[in-house]
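Rotation project, supervised by the postdoc (A.L.). Task for the rotation student: set up a whole-complex structure prediction and record inputs and outputs verbatim in this book. Inputs entered:
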Amino acid sequence: MINALCLLLILISSLFFSGIVIRTKSVFSGRKGPGIFLPIKDIWRLLRKGSVYSETSSFVFQIAPSIYLASVLMAILFIPFGNIPGLISFNGDFVFFAYVLALGKFFSIIGALDTGSSFEGMGASREALYSMLVEPAFFILMGSFALFTGHTSFAEIFATLHFGSYISYAIGVLATFVLVIIAMVENSRMPVDDPKTHLELTMVHEVMILDNSGFDLGLILHTTNLKFAMYGAIIANFFLTPNYEWYYSVPIFIGAQFLFAVVVGTIESFEARFRMNHNPQFIFMLTSISLLIFMGVLLMLGKII
Amino acid sequence: MTYCILIIITTLITVLLIPFLDSKQKGNVAVLGVLINSIISSVIAIQVLLGQTFEYSFYGGFIFGSIILKVDALSAWFILLMNFTSITAILYGVQYLKVYQNQRARLSMHYGSFLLNHFAMIGIYFLHNLLAFLCVWELMAISAFLLVIFEHHKMETIKAGMNYLIQSHVSVVFIMLGIIWVSFNTGSFVFSAISQYSLSVSNPISFLLFLCFFAGFAIKAGFVPFHTWLPHAHPAAPAHISGLMSGVIIKLGIYGILRMLLLINANFLIIGIFILIISVISGVYGVMLAILQHNLKRLLAYHSIENIGIIGIGIGIGCIGKGIGNDFLQFAGFAGALLHTLNHSLFKSLLFYAAGTVYQAVHTVQIEQLGGLIKKMPHTAILFLIGSLAICGLPPFNGFVSEFLIYSGLFGAINNNQLSFTILIISSIFGLVLIGGLALFCFTKAFGIVFLGTARNHHPHNYEEPGTATLFPKYMIVVFILVIGLLPQLFIRVINGPVSMFQDESGLNQSLPKLINTMQMVSLASTAILIFAFGVYFIKKQFTRKAVINFSPTWGCGYDVVSPKLQYTAGSYARSFEKLVKPIINIHKHEGRINTIVPHPVGFASHVSDKIETNLISTPIMHLRGFVGKFTFLQNGSVQFYVLYGVVFILIAITIPFLINSAFFIFELFKQL
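Outputs recorded:
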């Protein structure tokens, strides 16, 4: 039962995640800002509303948000909590993790194409391109950890991952950086996409969900929160040293989530969105940083030099 | 032995019977023939997989020597997957060809070739005699050519068919070269002569022999740079033949390569690295070009190259595992490759059949002209969607299982003693991930543009969902796709047989339980996805029971004269990707510009050409034709000249020995002087 702890914590932290992000942004811009539960209240309101479907759309449009949410929920089951494995854990589970997220992405993309709108097609194309570009970074990162620890599942990797030397701290920092940026790209946040933009031509994710309304929109919005909390949990795992008792690790987890949300808010406050054609370069840079981590691991294992 | 005679008799009777029947009966007899042959050969294959042996040999005259008929686990696996796709192909084909019912001669030719093709493929998997193998291989190549050129009144089809025929014979040349090489040195045509010969020579020579066979089989399989026939032949053939070719015929090349790996005794490490590099290139190159195709069937054809790449990555890491003695890597590699061979034959044939249904409904497979088919053809759309999800390797479908096996091999082997391997493996992971991401990009485009939205072009006549007879073979495939996706552990057990041929018992005993455990978890997780998806959807339905549901036009950003032309097109969907790959791939654009005061209609067209094809095939052939063209004056059409050439040739033939003799005579004379 203890395995469900991480799931529970992620579900809880997803409730206040975007609230903290919004609050951080408002503090930086000198406003008081809304309460941190406002976004989740909005979602709750959306869930109870009626829906308007496009006449062009088919059943794909109606099932897509549900599958999108299901895929993220499924992915969360793999996340371990320190040395406690997730609900499902096997060798190579991070491959399943990445592919199940891709399944959700596939459906959100075809859901957008189903409306036959030029804007939503545009968003879909960008989303597909960016998620394709970001994937290698994640796999090389996990490959480096597999090389470093000699294990191939999330739980075993994080249970044996501990930082000892200076290089390893550098690797930890770089890995956190890569994961933060992956989370930003996957959730279509600031340097790549601006969720608050007002022009459809410059949107990525927001433009894909232009026609979603009511329950479906609520699902999609909450899926974004869940995804953030999921990446936050992966990052938190770097700092959950195996031998800690739960009364240490739970606050560390919550603290890491909180810090991650503040970082997201800070990035959003001070960073401007890139021009669309610079995005691929930026995302590909992540892969090179992952390769740097890979080289660092090789260095630590004494394979080079 | 009686089984084999039965197969030969069935084929002969059905092929001879078909021309005398009316159009409807032709199809039924062909189905019957394929079914009987499939059942007989499958029974043998299943018996072999269950542990029996099947081996007969008889004397085939002084040319062939002793002919061995043998089915081992490897051929059994291939026979089973070949039979399944052949059955679905003929079942779907009979429905597909209903439109051509009044063209009896063409139908006879087609069904006859189909039976011969099926027979030849069974022969390829049965025969263990090199020369006999070459004969059935040739029969397969020619019958496949006849199948491809079904619509022979079209110039393109004939061109594609000729291209295929010539390239298959280049492949035969390479295989023949290998066979001559071996039999010249050993004086025998049995398969074991290859291993005998390769044991007697040094490693580099064995590797060269392997390369010779590899080139031959790689042309059939479609590895880059031998792939150039594939994107032409697949779209030209009728849909069920495209499915058969992509699902089964190109797998003959994979079978050939695996068979040679069993026979040739060379340095597996080098072979593994070689195959791995060529496969990663095939995979990435294939899918890159696939995204930019605007012809649905050609897009699928390029995806075959990609999937052959994935199979090759499996074979490559299997060989590397064998080379460095890593049992798990070896098992995961070969098992992944073999399972992906099956998986690809399933989802690719499904996709081709669905594309065929689209073609018959709206008479085009140009993606840019399609759209909104899901409304009138929901079944075909769902089938295509399942095929797309499977080919992208997404859980809970079958494509994921084989890719997962390959991934677990790669990640399992990342921690080894040699730096160069670690780097090779991380680059393969990079390649495989890139292939996965690009496939997702490609199939969201293919499915989204073809089936979703609204029609981009006005289709002149009404179309509707085809009947159950057409849908049935496709749903047969879907059942298999789901069973493999949800219960992979069963298939790992079956695949144990063929994989065990590549590795010794002890390695197998270690890796198998480990993988079966993992596969049980994969199965659990795959089922969980379905439960989650249905669960969320059910909750949504319950929650929104009382909610008001409205329908209105798609939001047009304030613009309300919405037209289908405003939709995103396949070209624009791929545009962002196109910009990224511009340096690698040739993209030709033809755009008209408005330069007068009164605008006139202008057009825009873009197409992609295969750089490798241009540099490797088209340009050399152009130069060759330029050179040979200088001699066209010889072919002037008057009979007198041709008679003269004959006479001149005979004269030269007679005088050469005479001249040489006299030269010798004079030489001797001088010497004596």
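Student's summary: Chain A has one domain: 2-300.
Supervisor addendum: The first strand of chain A starts at residue 51 and ends at 54.
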